[in-house]
Amino acid sequence: MDCQEVHKFVHPYLDGEFVEDDRVAFAAHLSGCERCRRVVRFEEQFKEKLRASATPLPAAPGRLRARVGSLLAEEGAREEKRRRRRWTLRLVPALAMAAALAIALGVTLRKAGAPPAEQQLAEQSVRWHRTALPLDVTDSRGGKIQQFFRDKVPFAVRLPRLRNKDAHLVGARLTQLRGQQAVYLTYQVGGQRVSFFVVDPHTLPSRQRQPRWRGVQGYNVGTYVSGGTGYAVTSEMDRRRLVRLISHRD
Ligand SMILES: [Zn+2]
Ligand 1 centroid to 120 CA: how many Å? Predict the structure, then answer.
């Protein structure tokens, strides 16, 4: 098992989904690779924090819970019927009340479907940015970095075109965003760290030239496609400066 596989399967490993042989191979790699140990430790701590923050509120009396649950189910079914008939959506006081009760009782209202792909990508890029993972290659010359990744990822690694003359490339490493390979580039811009994730443009469903900005845990993340390459830029730098940094004239 190599580093790449370890990074790819860290979640199934931590979730105990490995068969014995794979688990042994995984552990064997970890025992000899400090970098992967750091990745696994980070993911483990992240999962623990997630679990800790998801600690349920004190349980509501069983019958009340059941009542709220069935109210939600009934209203959900009715709502579905209304939608199918294409009736105008109206306020549904009973549903609103049930939802408020559910929140008060700590009953989770599940949203349909997973969060949009780009939102997940943004959240993950913030996690990598915060971790400041060790670099595979340290070089300020873009050409050297592009050369390093030439045979390592299935897409062209073009460095982002940056406006600021004081943006200094520090280095890069291979990483993953949403299970897809990505090249992580780290820059220093006026004393602040700016991370760029170079991704296959197909990873960004909107594929737009104009960056789409999101705020994630106090960080700004912009996703965009330029010259056939996908980018996610992540930094604590304020959004206006980031917009300026990545804007350039063709
Ligand atoms: Zn490794």
Answer: 25
Residues 72 and 25 in one domain: no
Tens-digit pLDDT profile for residues 198-234: 999 888 877 788 899 999 999 999 999 998 899 999 9
111 located within any domain: no
Ligand 1 centroid, distance to 82 Cα (angstroms): 54
In a domain, 110, yes or no: no
Task: Say if residue 136 is in the same domain as residue 187.
Answer: yes
User: For 48-103, what is each residue's pLDDT tens digit?
Assistant: 777 777 655 555 566 666 666 666 667 666 666 666 555 444 445 565 666 666 65
CA–CA distance, 77 with 87 (Å, rounded to integer): 14
Per-position DSSP letters for 66-81, written without gaps between them? HHHHHHHHHHHHHHHH
167 alpha carbon to ligand 1 midpoint, in Å? 30
Q: In this structure, is residue 175 part of a structural domain?
A: yes
Gap from CA of 76 to ligand 1 centroid (Å)? 48
